[in-house]
């Protein structure tokens, strides 16, 4: 058996097209949607991601300001800048790139992002609202996982989903989104005893550990659906997920590719959140 490929590209294109329409309407009405990306790192993969957001924003008709504070920025400087952007009526979406400089706590710092502009769900208040069932932007990656499952009509009600990873960017918010869709969710992490026993009992596996090749055939039940969130750079400049696609494809029922799976949907949703924030 070879697993079906759950591409994210068509979904991402549809979200981008709808977003461009909404952006054009907002611009025509005198409110050009604007996204600010705060950067305080010299990290190369972060720089790649920021460029790809800026490119996608431009194509969608969203103004994108890159606010580079440099890798030496202090927590106070970052907080002040996030506060200024939060108070600026011409800015509708704010994202704060990670990593932050050593010693700067990302959760504390993200408290300075206005919740209404928190388009990547980075403020702990947004995560709390999500957990409580109140309106909030979910982190774009977590939402991308659920949107891909829905797009490919994977049933979630009553299904057992194993999430590998408990970060505030992916694992925790995706668990809340899945609970809201009536899945039974198990969240795994680096201290989970016998990861393979847990994941191989699940109907759906969401891999978000940031470890290339972590999920092998022994981690997956025959016919299960596997969503690969990992984006791990390879020495030759490529990109691989957390799933050993070669062995898992022979056992799983369906698998998202890397690249071309969760990544493109993430960027598209970030921009959709920005026009939604501007429309309010
Ligand atoms: N495609 C996209 O749009 C995005 C992709 N990503 C990618 O997703 C991956 C995860 O990102 P992120 O959540 O930010 O990463 P973090 O490093 O913040 O979290 C990783 C999580 O995985 C767990 N983990 C690590 N190793 C193992 C292991 N051997 N077994 C079980 N669990 C393990 C960690 O456990 P513990 O808590 O115990 O340390 C932790 O909870 C990365 O590859 C990242 O690049 C992230 C965001 C967006
Ligand atoms: N708070 C926070 N939010 C994030 O969303 C976040 C983050 N932190 N930290 C870093 C990771 C990384 N990330 C990616 C998003 C899209 C692609 C993407 O679109 N990749 C393409 C192609 C990449 C290639 O081929 O090189 C693809 O998968 O098809 C990749 C990586 C978001 N991240």
The gist of it:
This protein is of the alpha/beta class and 280 residues long. Helix content is 40%, strand content 15%. A hairpin with a 5-residue loop joins strand 9 and strand 10.
Describe this protein's structure.
Helix content is 40%, strand content 15%. It is α/β, with parallel strands linked by helices and 280 residues long. The strands form three sheets. It has a six-stranded parallel sheet. A three-stranded parallel sheet has the order 3-2-4, with helices on both faces. Bound molecules: NADPH dihydro-nicotinamide-adenine-dinucleotide phosphate (NDP) and 5,10-Methenyltetrahydrofolate. NADP(+) binds at residues 165-167, 231. Catalyzes the oxidation of 5,10-methylenetetrahydrofolate to 5,10-methenyltetrahydrofolate and then the hydrolysis of 5,10-methenyltetrahydrofolate to 10-formyltetrahydrofolate. Homodimer.
Distance between the ends: 48 Å
In DSSP terms (H or I, runs of 4 or more residues), the helix count works out at 10
Helix/strand/pairing category: alpha/beta
Q: On the 0-100 scale, what is the average pLDDT?
A: 97
Low-confidence stretches at least 5 residues in length (pLDDT < 50)? Answer: none
CATH class of the largest domain: Alpha Beta
CATH topology of the largest domain: the name is Rossmann fold
Task: Report the major sheet.
Answer: 6 strands, parallel
Function: Catalyzes the oxidation of 5,10-methylenetetrahydrofolate to 5,10-methenyltetrahydrofolate and then the hydrolysis of 5,10-methenyltetrahydrofolate to 10-formyltetrahydrofolate.
Pfam family, one: THF_DHG_CYH
Keywords: Amino-acid biosynthesis, Histidine biosynthesis, Hydrolase, Methionine biosynthesis, Multifunctional enzyme, NADP, One-carbon metabolism, Oxidoreductase, Purine biosynthesis
Protein name: Bifunctional protein FolD
